[in-house]
Amino acid sequence: MKVDCLVVGAGFAGAVCAERLAASGRSVLVIDRRNHIGGNAHDRPDAHGILVHPYGPHIFHTNAERIFAYLSRFTDWRFYEHRVLASVDGRLLPIPINRTTINGLYGWALDEAGIRAHLDAVRVPIDPIRTSEDAVLASVGTDLCDRFFRGYTRKQWGLDLADLSASVAARIPTRTGDDDRYFTDRFQFMPAAGYTRLFEAMLASPRITVRLATDFFQVRDAIAWDHLIFTGPLDGFYGHRYGRLPYRSLRFEHEHLAGIETFQPVGQVNYPNDHAFTRITEFKHLTGQQAAGTSIMREYPCADGEPFYPVPRPENEALAQRYRKLAAAETRVSFVGRLAEYRYYNMDQVVGAALKTVADLGA
User: Fold this and answer.
1) Second label for 37, Cα 20 to 30 Å away, from 28, 53, 71, 244?
2) Does 147 map to a domain?
């Protein structure tokens, strides 16, 4: 088979590249070793008709109007602002930490100035900030760090805060007011009909052929292509030449609760200190579906399984840089996405990286 462009992976990185390349007049073959499109953002109705995310909750948010406008070509939207509670000492308290969190935890009634003064008093002065522990202690002090972050991090990453780069903790702000939204981006929406429908629209061009349940490494010699877009693990492309890049994986436990309108007050509740799972997602909050029962999912981080998250540590970044040097020397291959670039991207950042990649290719 001969195509202008072979795209490996039908998630956001691959689908965006395929759509743009096809729009520029190229023939595109998209392959994915899974039996569905959408990558980890894939969603589908469960046995009870409730739209669920099999690979964990995917909440779209961005400050980039051009990215929102681009995706809006392929979906209508449902306005949704994600809210997260943390189960700490028998209470459900907002995360990111805000005034409500601190007052609820300690039984206080401080105003914003009081919260600011409290945080100023408990912060640990650390300079320079190198680790996630440094970042959290410098933001909220020891007690809040231990109650909200230390246990969650150990479960999520299998590492202590002190063993992770500062970039992980830096993703979570601290607020002195009552804003309890998890994100503050300008555009916060969910695809009205779900992510899979968005991907179907994105890949609908007659110039795009999609082959699922197809492993690139088994068919690479049977396909002729002028340019390759690779969105899988970067180290895997090179046969783990320098050793394996560490990834964190997840195991998901789905449960349907018949006859219950809602299980929890928000879409996501974190469990930093109790249980083996890190969080419970209730999908009806995310999708706005009306149904007699509800479907929830518990999330268990693990070391082995599908690669989900690059592990942000200096030694891992150094190894990734060795692979990136190999990638930079390629003239007919582009590497795009969280796994192919070994970067902790949000969905909108993946879309942005994909758009830049194909723009550089003249699409």
Assistant:
1) 244
2) yes
